[in-house]
Design a protein that fits this description.
Elements (H helix, E strand, L loop, with lengths): L11 H11 L18 H6 L3 E6 L3 H19 L8 E6 L9 H12 L3 E2 L31 H4 L4 H12 L2
Parallel strand pairs: 1-2, 2-3
């Protein structure tokens, strides 16, 4: 359906240029390491049109991601020193039993940091971890095949795609 190309963060923009020379794509996703200490991450991020960063309600992960997003937003996005049009956070691995006032508190802090969080969240689910099972039943996580419609139900993937598409097309 689409190519998945491995590259190093410091070479990701060059890799994308080569890809675009071969074919025309409307959207290219970059899956970068979750640390700015890896060479090339900040440079590559500065070339993005949009940044969508997953966050989870784990305190250590959340604090680290918010610190990074806040610094990036203040130093690069809001100053106009890059072509980044928006930085958006996405709740990932949301335990339906926890999606209560804990998230309201976190979202208040996110708002105070002048950061944006998408309305759509991705629930924590074992189906996201499925590869091709021995029984060859429907699989969910694949970069080659579309997710089975039965497994998509309740995943919020389609809603997330619509929300992101609405942001990048506005």
């Amino acid at each position: 359906m689409y190519p998945v190309i491995k590259s190093l963060p410091e070479k990701a923009s060059e890799t994308a240029k080569v890809l675009l020379e071969k074919s025309k794509y409307d959207i290219i996703f970059f899956d970068l390491p979750g640390t700015v200490n890896k060479e090339g991450v900040i440079y590559t991020l500065s070339l993005m049109d949009y940044i969508f960063s997953p966050i989870s309600a784990d305190r250590v992960v959340l604090e680290s991601t918010l610190r990074f997003a806040h610094r990036l937003n203040e130093a690069i996005v809001q100053t106009g020193k890059s072509k980044i049009k928006g930085l958006h956070l996405i709740w990932n691995m949301v335990d339906g039993r926890e999606k209560t006032e804990l998230y309201d508190v976190y979202e208040q802090i996110i708002s105070e940091l002048n950061l944006s969080v998408l309305k759509t969240f991705l629930p924590d689910s074992k189906r996201f971890r499925r590869e091709l099972p021995v029984s060859h039943k429907a699989l969910f996580r694949s970069t080659i095949f579309p997710a089975d419609k039965v497994l998509l139900k309740g995943s919020n993937i389609e809603t997330l795609v619509e929300e992101i598409t609405g942001i990048i097309n506005s």
